[in-house]
Amino acid sequence: LNRIYIKLIGKIGSSGRHEIKTLTGLWAGSVSFLVSDSGFVLALGLVDDDWFCSKIIVTTPEGVSMLFPCHRWMNSNKRLSLRDAVGSSKSHVLCMHVSYRWGIYAEGLPHIVNAESPTVLPPEVRFSFTKKKEFLFTLVIALFNIFMPVLTEYVEKNWMRDDFFGYQFLNGLNPTMIKRCSELPENFPVTNDMVKSSLPEKSTLEMEIELKRGRNIFLCDYKRLNGLQGNEINKKKQYLSAPLCLLFSTPENKLTPIAIQNISDPSRNPIFLPSENEKDWLLAKIFVRGAEFNEHELNFHLLRTHLLGEVFTMAVMRNLPSCHPLFKAVALRNHTVSLR
């Protein structure tokens, strides 16, 4: 059972240490009353379990209520000193500067919190017991859905089809990578003769690109991956491709690939077409899917989700008082640091 001690420190003196007691114990939402002189600083101590304190309200003998925002975790190894909501937050900010130190993830990327593992993170940004259980439950549901016979059988039968390839693009990780093509890049020299078998009769690539045909040509360019070096996995060097993929929206409103170049430099790699060797075309599509995964993980997931989010989390936790609305939102709902 949690035992929490409180001490009020004011201009005149200190109230001494008092234990907050309730008949049913201190659970979530507990309220306890303690009569003492008014103070401007609260000192809190805790024994036993971790306990999240949202706020403390002290009522003076004159009936004036004083709010002491907390929104932090307490444990037996951590003693908190809180100032009232209208007081100075300098001591809180200095304390947070010690708990949240900047670290370097990699050269050229946003800085991160300096922590070796999630277990040494400040408790405000660690996963709670409930959140961990939610992750396990979600994992079980996801595995069940993945191995549903109906779903796996359909994918197994259709994954090599061009229209299913386009379907995965539109319903996958990064549909925003698909850009309407108004002009072909210089390093992607696709000609009309190359793709005419994939277009409607009497139509040309130029006509499909132009407005009068509805602009049915789309482009995915993974140029950000160009030049990146892959890691070694099981002592085998890995390689990243930076493909360009040209897509066509058919009259049946299906998105299909019509040309793929797996390297940005056309002199080093041919343009693969669905009208040519079936296995070469399938391999080219697999390279595009691999690039799609790498683009998502490196750019949209790691950089834009975790690293950028962590910068704002660190800035809020280090510089804003606990009574600030942004601090409360981050402390209660932000798991960016733990996830990364």
From TrEMBL:
The keyword Membrane appears for this protein: yes
Alphabetized GO MF terms: metal ion binding; oxidoreductase activity, acting on single donors with incorporation of molecular oxygen, incorporation of two atoms of oxygen
GO biological process, one term: lipid oxidation
Record bears the keyword Glycosyltransferase: no
Record InterPro entries: LipOase, LipOase_C, LipOase_C_sf, LipOase_Fe_BS, PLAT/LH2_dom, PLAT/LH2_dom_sf
Residues covered by the Lipoxygenase domain: 159-340
Entry's transmembrane regions: 135-152
Cofactor: Fe cation
Keywords: Dioxygenase, Iron, Lipid metabolism, Membrane, Metal-binding, Oxidoreductase, Transmembrane, Transmembrane helix
Entry-linked PANTHER family: LIPOXYGENASE
Family named by the database record: Belongs to the lipoxygenase family.
Protein's recorded name: Lipoxygenase domain-containing protein
